[in-house]
Amino acid sequence: MDWPALALSLQLGGLTVLMLVPLAVFVGRGLAYRHFRVKPLVEAVLTLPLVLPPTVVGYYLLTGLGGGSLIGQWWERFFGQPLVFHFSGLLLASLIVNIPFAVQPITRAFEAIPSELRDAAACCGMGFWRTLLAVELPLAWPGLLTGMVLTFAHTLGEFGVVLMVGGNIPGETRTVAIAIYDRVQAFDFNAAGNMSLLLLVLSLVVLSVAGGWARPSGRRHVLPRR
Amino acid sequence: MSCHDADFSLSIQQEAPIFLDATFSCTGGQLLALVGPSGSGKSTLLRMIAGLSRPAAGQIICGDSCWYDQAQDICLSPQERHVGFVPQHYGLFPHMTALANVLAGLHHLPDHKREPCAREWLARVHLAGLEQRRPAELSGGQQQRVALARALAREPSLLLLDEPFAAVDRATRETLYIELAELKRELSLPIVMVTHDLAEALLLADRMTLLSHGTTLQSGQPREILAHPVNETAARLLGIRNLFDGELLRHDESAELTWFRSGEHLLACRLDARWATGSRVRWMAPNSAIRLRAAGQGSLPESHNRLRLTIKSLLVLGDEVRITASFAGQELPLHLMIPFRLAQKLSLREGNTTDVVLLEEGLRILQEG
């Protein structure tokens, strides 16, 4: 069992959730409530990581964040270390590939809140933050939880993008998915099996628990019966 | 527990997305009913008053405060307007208790005053003891009361009610009418209520504004509007079905009557000198202007306007009977509603003839449009 790889995966998943979900709340809210001309294009761009092969996403991230790119050069000048083949690059890649997993359920959750409730909040004198915290987030909570779980579970299982952007550096970029692949390449099926089983059980537990909590997700919030 | 005393006036004009050309006003303590069919812009206007959508041009003034003025580029947010708004589906926060819903509107008060104030308002709308219930655990009437308590607890300058009784059962509605009438008497704030129910407007409103396709047709006291609709569209909105063609014959100033011909009949109404002799006119006969022969007496009130009707159909609707009848020289039928007992006493049957008079003071000559 490659415990450092598992710890790295959990760390990557946790940080991705912590950093992506707050952003997804604002992006999802904006997509749910605002209407602008290029909205379909924005939605398509945000959904791209879901439909593109991981190798394609990985390729663009590798070239876009690598030492030859403006971002890569700026990062290296500023932080003194490269973005690719480093945990920070892995985290950035993870944030990008998980955008649809976080944004989509959160957008749907905000869309399910009747506009009448936001109108009522405004007429109660609630400003943006109070409406968000007291009305919208409690009602969108199941969608938020779904977004968090999907992001975390997907990060644990992400392979292609991680391999292309991070490589296989023990303790730095080797996640549990990479470690399983590495063990299979080395014909160590015993270790690969153990790690696969652990990943399977971990994902199943996380999804089941969160699925129970997030049961109302996807349903429209019906206004109280009369 | 007080509400600001303020007068309210609105004038809004816009072409798109919905055409609006509306002007109305009401004073503190008055209930103004916006009446019109679906799609006439009633709820849109209410949203504009609340600051939830922005009109293209016009002015909205409440008391000393200008809420919207396109010329001066003033547009206060809903939070700044201090309105109490009861939307069509009440807009209660489903994850909060009744008490928390009312508390949500009380952030303008110091912390220690909020809960006593919220409880007081819930008690005032007869919901004491139900503070911890969520909206889904309350009946429609109770939800409406929570929404009303939340709106009023905010000490608004103006109360907005969007079809507040549309989806409660009849018994609850009657109770809520009484409660609203009592609250209106106690509060001195202007109330604007959207309704498509004319009977509701007549029952509750001090003033009424008729809207059609976003345009104000007429404003005034409900009974006055009902008796004197400004034109044919207003008359139709008021549910007046007896609208006929006629030709104006003469004005008799000494008798204070205007004479006109309709079909084979010479009819008279109160003097209305707006119309030129010989002009084609439209005239209306509201139900209140039609008198049948009084049962058992065989007499009719004094009137110049006697008609012999042939009853085409009788339809019993609860305690009332809807009669469709024809009279000589008119293709269009005359409609009237009479109490069921009167129809029985007069032994009215389909195919029978009966005499009626049309009271001069009830007949009106109308502008077309």
Kindly describe this structure.
Chain A has 226 residues and is an all-alpha fold. Chain A has a single domain (3-213), classed as MetI-like (MetI-like fold), CATH 1.10.3720.10. Helices cover 76% and strands 0% of the residues of chain A. In chain A, helix 1 (3-33) packs across helix 5, helix 1 (3-33) packs parallel to helix 6 (99-111) and helix 5 (87-97) runs antiparallel to helix 9. The termini of chain A are far apart. The mean pLDDT of chain A is 87. In chain B, helix 4 crosses helix 5 (140-153). Chain B has 10 helices and 21 strands. Chain B is an alpha+beta fold. In chain B, 24% of the residues lie in helices and 33% in strands. In chain B, the strands form 4 sheets. Chain B has a 6-stranded mixed β-sheet with strand order 7-8-9-3-10-11, sandwiched between helices. The two termini of chain B are 47 Å apart. Chain B folds into 2 domains: 8-237, Rossmann fold, CATH 3.40.50; 243-366, Beta Barrel (OB fold (Dihydrolipoamide Acetyltransferase, E2P)), CATH 2.40.50. The interface between A and B is medium-sized, with 22 and 36 residues.
> What does the radius of gyration of chain B come to?
25 Å
Radius of gyration of chain A: 20 Å
Count of DSSP strands of chain B? 21
Shape of chain A: globular
Gap between N and C termini of chain B, in Å? 47 Å
- Total number of domains of chain A: 1
Separate helix tally of chain A: 11
Query: Which structural class fits the helix and strand makeup of chain B?
Result: alpha+beta
Which strands sit side by side, in order, in the main sheet of chain B?
A: 7-8-9-3-10-11
Which CATH architecture of the largest domain in chain B?
3-Layer(aba) Sandwich
Q: In this structure, how is the largest beta sheet of chain A organized?
A: none
- The fourth-level CATH homologous superfamily of chain A is MetI-like
Taken as a percent bin, the fraction of beta residues of chain A is: under 5%
The most extensive interface, with participating residues per chain, is: A-B, 22 and 36 residues
Q: What's the CATH topology label of chain A?
A: MetI-like fold
Most strands sheet of chain B: 6 strands, mixed
| CATH class category of chain A | Mainly Alpha
CATH topology of the largest domain in chain B, by name, is Rossmann fold
**Uncertain segments of chain A of ≥5 residues (pLDDT<50)?**
none
Class by SSE composition of chain A: mainly alpha
